[in-house]
Amino acid sequence: MRLFRQIFTALAAQALLVVALPGGFLLWNVETSSQRLIANRDDEHLARLAALVPEARRNGKSDAQIIAELDRTDPTILGGRVAIIGADGRLLAGPASSPAIKEQPVVEDGRTVATLRIISPPTRTAIDREMLRDHYMGIAVVMIGIFALLLTAAYWFAAKWSRPQRELLRVSHEVVDGASDVEFSEEGPRETVATMRNLRRLANRFERVETARRTWLVMIAEELREPIEAFGKRLQLLSDALSADPEFKAEIEADQQRLARMAQDLHAVALADLGRLPVRFADVDPRALIHNALYNHRQRAQAAQVTLESSTLPPYTILVQWDAARIEQLFGALIENSLRYVPRGGRIVLGLESQRDAWRLIVDDNAPGIDVGLAQQLFEPFYRADAQESPGGSGLSLATARAIVEGHHGRIEATHSPIGGLRITVILPSSPPSF
Question: Residue 204's pLDDT is what?
Answer without folding.
Answer: 77
